[in-house]
């Protein structure tokens, strides 16, 4: 009789012990999750602030494209000043141009929209300019790439 | 055990998610997007957006829609159909299976899919900051054994232990939280970029059974885009005579703006496509500007949407289920954001579809939840409950002031300082309420207690801190403490979160049903409180400094206040009637106060007069601030 009780107690003890372990594990897991999230939040915080304007700038670039297309047609000195002003404002926010003309095609920063006669894998024409926002590609340059066949 | 990621390995796009802090979260790709194109250039090892960008240049070596070839025989219908549209070479490999030849090498569909999974793994590792070894991958419900096997192999090639292959509709149902105990029939309507699937699931005790599945493997958002592009091109041709379909650059620009327009038309009823200088005609630039209405888009794609209905009918017939037995319809895939699609689904199934989860992410999120279940993450963390309804107390004018908002994860604690509603009020009653309605009487009373022994003070002066503390077991402790005397009273309410689903649902529905009525009632109380505050404060000023105003002004104000008070006490008062009287009194008080300050300024040095005007303004706004605190922060006696 005495033995039975102690056996029961041991069982209970083992069960409790495993329960504690389980809970401790869970606790650690949650804590780890939390700490990781905190760490990531800290990492992201500065980029978040820096990149907060990204979506707005991306939209403004469409207007910039339109202005540049107009300028290509009109070649108006006044419009040029407007475009330059626009460019300088955006560059203050961290925007910079992706050099693409006559460069080797690079899918990391360029988007090939058409293959045309010309030197193989070289950018023959930039259709719309690409931009970096700080060190990230905000928008790849849309380019025409040479096919290797020249005519 | 490390984290198990969930991967939605899609035909056109893929996504990755992971359990974090008890909820599934999408892991952004290295390009910062929530999904990435399932496109691979295996020679240079390019995957996703980067592979897509060089597709035009390198179409023969760029593989898209590889999922269509997974586990397929070369001679099979699916492989042959894919061969027709794919610019890359599909050939017969070992055991008659379809393989891809490019750059002088042979790739199995598994190897190509593995590249996509590798990117998913790498993105997850960058995000989590640890190595990832385990994954749950989703497949369409109709995938047969060899297709599932191929998917598993792809995972292994990518260096992942595939813990489980899960059906996409099952994952979606998990993401929608449909696994919680209910036994019901669920329809998953999945209209993605390139494929359409509909599945009927039977849910019982946490077990999902796919009863039937149907669909169209060549119908998706891309077809919708094409319709819109064709329309824009043909309209432009009608207008100008220029055929833009011959101009690749123009076509590219139209494609981009058509996709944008399609997305905008899900929220707006009209949008405009603007592409200046799209082409030239006789040396003159031509601009593309076109208004497109939602109705027009719906007309253009009408037959595409209708094409989804036949598979739905078949799926129901195969599952031998009546429409009336369907408990829930959930939407998956970006195209289901289109209002017309939602409407058609609703009309067919006779049920409002559930769209509470982002349709692009649902499958990946569900896969992550499955991963969490396997690793033990979910079982315990999901025990963290949320308060199903808002908890708060009754404040002046029988208004419910919330302290702990609905859906707050518990344990949680919140305090707020309140005050008295009348002068020398010796006690406050803390009436604890639960519910979503703005008026106290419409909510459920959980309990109440009285804090007495408040020293005599003018209204609004005593500071009574009310604290709500709800623990992980749903036990709510409410205490009120007079900050001046330190005297405290409290009450413990058990099972504050423990309401039956029906009860919660009813209370939420009531809140919605009576929203308009409640708003009016609350407005009336707010107006009354505002008027009350003005009366009390102005009377106080008149009592303290009435002589400074002059007898006429004081009389005028007193009369106006009496008038206002009569209206406040009147049963038939409306917001409008109160507002009219309140406006008269407020203007009167402001006018006299201003005159008072002006007179005072004239007496003083002229130099100071410039600072006087703002002061008068300051007083007026101060009265307003007080009103607000009375509205929100006072406990009724």
From TrEMBL, chain A:
Keywords: Chaperone, Coiled coil, Cytoplasm, Stress response. GO terms for cellular component: cytoplasm. Belongs to the GrpE family. GO terms for biological process: protein folding. This is Protein GrpE. InterPro entries: GrpE, GrpE_CC, GrpE_head. One of its GO terms (molecular function) is protein homodimerization activity. It is found in: Cytoplasm. Pfam families: GrpE. PANTHER family: GRPE PROTEIN, GRPE PROTEIN HOMOLOG, MITOCHONDRIAL. Homodimer. Participates actively in the response to hyperosmotic and heat shock by preventing the aggregation of stress-denatured proteins, in association with DnaK and GrpE. It is the nucleotide exchange factor for DnaK and may function as a thermosensor. Unfolded proteins bind initially to DnaJ; upon interaction with the DnaJ-bound protein, DnaK hydrolyzes its bound ATP, resulting in the formation of a stable complex. GrpE releases ADP from DnaK; ATP binding to DnaK triggers the release of the substrate protein, thus completing the reaction cycle. Its main location: cytoplasm. The keyword Chaperone applies.
From TrEMBL, chain B:
Pfam families: HSP70 (PF00012). Residues 598-637 are annotated as: Disordered. PANTHER family: HEAT SHOCK PROTEIN 70KDA. Signal peptide: none annotated. Keywords: ATP-binding, Chaperone, Coiled coil, Nucleotide-binding, Phosphoprotein, Stress response. PROSITE patterns: HSP70_1 (PS00297), HSP70_2 (PS00329), HSP70_3 (PS01036). It comes from Candidatus Collierbacteria bacterium GW2011_GWB2_44_22. The gene is dnaK. One of its GO terms (cellular component) is cytoplasm. Gene3D superfamilies: 3.30.420.40, Actin, Chain A, domain 4 (3.90.640.10), Substrate Binding Domain Of DNAk, Chain A, domain 1 (2.60.34.10). Belongs to the heat shock protein 70 family. Residues 554-581 form a coiled coil. HAMAP family: DnaK. GO terms for molecular function: ATP binding; ATP-dependent protein folding chaperone; unfolded protein binding. The keyword ATP-binding applies. This is Chaperone protein DnaK. Residues 598-607, 614-631 have a biased composition (Basic and acidic residues). Induction: By stress conditions e.g. heat shock. Acts as a chaperone. The modification Phosphothreonine is found at residue 195.
